[in-house]
Specification:
By secondary structure, the chain is an alpha+beta fold. It contains 19 helices and 16 strands. It binds adenosine-5'-diphosphate, magnesium ion (MG) and zinc ion (ZN).
Amino acid sequence: MKDLQTVLVDWEAVIGLEVHTELTTLNTKMFCSCPIEFGAKPNTHVCPVCLGLPGALPVPNKAAIQSIVLAGLATNCEIMKRSMFYRKNYFYPDMSKNYQITQGPVAFCMHGGLELEVNGLAAKERSHLEGTQSLEGNADGDPGADDYKAVIGYMTRIGITRIHMEEDAGKMIHVGGSSGRITDADYSLVDYNRCGTPLIELVTEPDLRTPEEARLFLQKLRQIYLTLGISDCSMEEGSLRCDGNVSLRRRGSTELGTKTELKNMNSFKNLHDGLAYEICRQAEVLESGGTVRQETRHWEPGAKRTITMRVKETADDYRLFPDPDLAPYDLSDEFIQSVRDRLPELPDAKKQRFVSDFGLPTADADNLATDVDLSAFFDEALRGAGAQAAELAKPIANLLLNDVSAWLNANGIGFESLKAGPVSAKGLVELSSLVLSDEISSKQAKEVFSAMIETGDSPAAIVEARGLKQVSDSGEIERIVLGIMSQYPEKVAEYQAGKTGLIGFFVGQAMKATSGQGNPKLINEIFTEKLQEA
Ligand code: ADP
Ligand code: MG
Ligand code: ZN
């Protein structure tokens, strides 16, 4: 099979995503008051409504409607003032009422879109496209990993067809067999706890063109949902699930090709790799004169291939019709406005603010703003920095993105656990201002940071206890500088004869004389001054 880069020279990939998100932060299910709890004892959170027993009447959960409207507003959708609930009829043992409540042609949220910024390595999958970017620094004529660093990014808008509300099904566990699927299981167990959990499904227009764009889109959407606080968006636990639809067409063609659908991609990497494989597979089929079958396929990350799950020969007939138990749902202007008023600052706006208010480089601002916990921590730290905020922003951002990130990664923990850990926002402010005021060097700051993690003590206490104070007394440094100059008269002469690189040697001597506690910036300045005078 050809590789993705090669395939994408002749073929254009067309990708659309369907993203299911469980509204896990709500207390109760969509149409009943059963609690939502991941990992509860099977079949303990069920009632006549979510089991669909005859005569039970569903009542929509208003908090869930608020969540979907938040999602719609945050993704630039039009909020429909009247929409309806429909029944989608099908039989499967994980759904005891034999139909799923979903929405019809008009959903709560329609016609939205998100701007996607594709940079650096992520842009390379589109690097052959006219007018987007060129491979710079490709001196050897052979594009390698290093060359792609120079790829310039691009912006692209991804349309959102709709976001509709539906209810989740239960969960099955297939026992025995080798595939973990129902087809060869000895028997299957069913847990109805998840039945009736509110789910929002976002469907994109077929506007994505590369697996990287698909990955970035899903990451961006996840950060928006996390910022809104409507779901924990855990791909491992299945509260965020994504289907990838993909087809190919010859570059220049505007017709859509036949698509295949990859179901339930459970990580960003799987979504990317599954789509990349599928693009290459389809290209091979088409180039050998075959036709792509419209089917649902399953990505096997271990074997690195997709396999047929089911073939769609005719459209599924779900006999969709308006649910007679549920009246059309009307949203008042006041309600929509009250949700709009609750919209938090979204990652893109946060990034802009970090750049304009604190002068952070775009890349740093992006890294901070795209993580909801990290950016909250950063903001908390800067609020605590008061008048020093503008000066401390960059050093604090550096600490968070380097030292703190490295420490969290090494321990396999996420930013959400920062709040409870030994490193407080206040501690980081203290540490950064010690560096800013030259009391400790940035090298010493690393030592203090390690000690903060180990002991939970404040930076000031650690500096005190370890005698780490940087020598910034210019009188004392001047004495040391003059002492070293008289010790090495021949080096002074060489320096004055033009060998200015010797400054490193002099500073090194002074650092040794101060047991590493001299302020290197100050030492450098005083040496330069004295050596020129001498
Ligand atoms: P289905 O009825 O098969 O579920 P939909 O029309 O609902 O198909 O579209 C599902 C998703 O597939 C959407 O995200 C849509 O943008 C995308 N899609 C539709 N047609 C194509 C195509 N030819 N190639 C790639 N993606 C497509
Ligand atoms: Mg579909
Ligand atoms: Zn219930």
